[in-house]
Amino acid sequence: MVLENEVVALSDPKEEPEAEEEEEVDLVDPVDEVRAKCEMDSKAQQLNLILQACNDRVSKRSNTEESCHEELIDYVQHVDHCVGKKIFSKLK
Question: Secretion signal: which residues (predicted)?
Answer without folding.
Answer: none
